[in-house]
Design goal:
Order of helices and strands: HHHHH
Radius of gyration: 21 Å
Oligomer: single chain
Helix content: 55-70%
Shape: elongated
Mean pLDDT: 86
């Protein structure tokens, strides 16, 4: 009823797995958290919040083992949109920090979420609607 397989399998054998470097779950989460915090740092730099940017840069340096590259260009987005982006990035960082039980990063991410929420609530109503309409 079924024909036998006549060609070699395209799948690797389990014994071949040691030929390629593998990362642990902890390493993957560390890399992911550093990436989210680096993106948050870029937006924070664009917003001009030096105090928060320095705190974020410290966490990125701790995770990567080297100081982060700082954002040099501007996106041209309005402040309300930047606060929305920063809030989203801080939320992503918070989820990953919680997954890896990184208390320092989780506290920082939660504080940044609160700060950006407050900034969005303080924005004039017409700016909030205009950003949400896009």
């Amino acid at each position: 009823m079924y024909e036998p397989i006549r060609t070699k399998s395209v799948h690797r054998m389990a014994d071949d797995d040691d030929q390629f470097p593998h990362r642990t779950r902890e390493e993957e989460l560390r890399i992911q958290l550093a990436g989210h915090l680096s993106a948050l740092l870029a937006v924070t730099d664009e917003l001009g919040d030096e105090t928060a940017a320095e705190r974020i840069a410290e966490q990125v340096a701790r995770l990567r083992g080297a100081p982060p590259a700082r954002h040099a260009g501007l996106s041209g987005a309005g402040r309300t949109e930047l606060h929305r982006r920063a809030h989203t990035l801080a939320g992503r960082a918070l989820v990953v920090a919680a997954s890896r039980a990184d208390t320092a990063a989780a506290i920082l991410a939660a504080e940044r979420m609160d700060a950006h929420t407050a900034a969005l609530e303080a924005a004039p109503l017409d700016q909030r609607r205009a950003v949400g309409a896009h």
